[in-house]
Amino acid sequence: MVVRSYELLSVERTGHVATITLNRPEKLNALNPPLVAEFHAALDEIASEEDIRVVIVTGAGRGFCSGADVNRQLESLQGTADPAPEGPGITALAPHLQRIPQPVIAAINGVSAGAGFGVALASDIRIASEAARFSCIFAARQGAAMEMALTGSIYDAQWALEKGLVNKVVPADRLLDAAMELAQTIASNPPICVRSIKQLVHEHDGDIENVLHLESAANASAYCSEDRLEAVKSFLEKREPVYKGR
């Protein structure tokens, strides 16, 4: 496997977990076109890796992601911006995060605003440090997000937890450890089932018949897998299962 190198983010693999760290700390990891292009490329790279079962997304420095780069927006308005790289843009990040087969955990270490808030919401699970702050400048159907959009206020991690926007709040120095512990717990489960669960959650259209059809298809695939045999054998042998994603 050829591992690509990146300039504005890093990808670290630990066992079955890949950690993407946005790396423009001086800009609170604001999304400019080169970073967006690398983010898409990293997601595509990881999506193709059968050995990676969970993805963590976080930010370097004090910010998780402060949204679109305002300086770049000004340059675009003034007609002085460099041409953006070809390929999907900033608005395609959220669906891309939901489209990759692996569950995504957002480890929100600081400011999460605008499109950065969208990246957090598009992740499957969100863990926030006590230093995390949230703000959005666009409307969403969820009541809490609508309040954020209409007021323009900045909200702390505890508020986000109370509103159900994040799953857990931990001390700042425990954030990545907590995210990795959760990722490893998920990664220890049968990979075929984990990927099927994510697909079922994100790809159904609200039609219960369609949901049941997708569930049946996912169950059929899992039923004939080596991992199902391993689950049965390990239960009978009273030992921890070792899943291979086959």
From TrEMBL:
Gene3D superfamilies: 2-enoyl-CoA Hydratase, Chain A, domain 1, 3.90.226.20, Lyase 2-enoyl-coa Hydratase, Chain A, domain 2
Listed CDD domains: crotonase-like
InterPro entries xrefs: ClpP/crotonase-like_dom_sf, Enoyl-CoA_hyd/isom_CS, Enoyl-CoA_hydra/iso, Enoyl-CoA_hydra_C
Signal peptide (residue range): none
One MF annotation (Gene Ontology) recorded for this entry: catalytic activity
Taxonomic superkingdom: Eukaryota
Family membership: Belongs to the enoyl-CoA hydratase/isomerase family.
Protein name: 3-hydroxypropionyl-coenzyme A dehydratase
Lineage: Eukaryota, Metazoa, Porifera, Demospongiae, Heteroscleromorpha
